[in-house]
Structure prediction request, 357 residues.
Amino acid sequence: MIDLRSDTVTRPTPAMREAMATARVGDDVLGDDPTVAELEARVAELLGKPAALFVPSGTMSNQLGVRVHCQPGDELVCDTQCHIYNYEQGAYAQLFGVAARPLDTPGGVPTTDQLDAAIRPDNIHFPRTRLLCLENTHNRWGGRSAEYDEVRAACELAAQRGLARHLDGARLWNAAVASGRPWSDELRRWGGLFDTVSVCFSKGLGAPVGSALCGPADLIRQARRTRKALGGGMRQAGVIAAAALYALEHHVDRLADDHRRAHTLAQAVRETPGLSLVDDRCDTNLVLVDVDPSLGAAAGFAGRLAGHGVGLLAIGPQRVRAVTHLDVDDTQIHRATSALRDSLPAGRSSASAAGSY
Prediction:
């Protein structure tokens, strides 16, 4: 099976497993794990932040980011399609008594007019607007890399209006590499716009588990305390931190290969009757595809692809997602593009239907 469901399906490489097996460890809850400490210092440096906290998942990292900025009765502003709002169980409300105000943005980033109108006045009837949450790259917008100037404008307005800024940068590595600039410089540039930044090691970087929250030392101390309350305190966590460190050293530059393969797949989608590339755009390693109803529902289409040895994820009634990653090579991508055509119903080949789509 060519598994394109997500970049979370990667398995540790042999060299990464060796790094894990030989990692120096201690009790991280007691502050004694040297490999975790090394990872936290490295990530903080990359994002240009004073401190970082290693956590089990991106969801926990984002929720800690919300918690250090918000109290019960506060409100965060976000995009309607963002991960924090759609895929984290409303944990900010469940756990922390924080409300969300989602905005229908033009591409994942609110305009300054939208944001300005969404910030509530100081009135006893309203929640207190305290936080702007943005995402880069943006999952439900097809791995879109946010435009730096648009994000800067939103963050500057948020700061002027007294809002903190948190970035869900689970795939920020991809955005940095896709920028064409030195990726370490790009990470620091993005980090400078936000108070806190969450980054993930278990997606494109290929580590088996883990994310980090980066920010000011006092906020990271608060996050460490809340991490313990949520059950995220880990003991000999250096075993998994070593995988993240290995990924930072060896798996960032190669993200460009994932992007190139995603572009190949995206072009095949454009050329396949009944399929369309969402927003006709592929910035990084995510390919979002709308399936014409004449080809059936997304789940059925994904099922036919599975029969041809390609795993996709149905993410809507007529939408599927494919994600390239380090466990998929050029040969497999070419097989996947052939499977797209082979999965069409009889009589719907590219040649016979080209004039209709």
About this structure: The longest strand covers residues 128-135. The radius of gyration is 21 Å. Residues 281 and 317 are 20 Å apart (CA to CA). The chain has 15 helices and 13 strands.
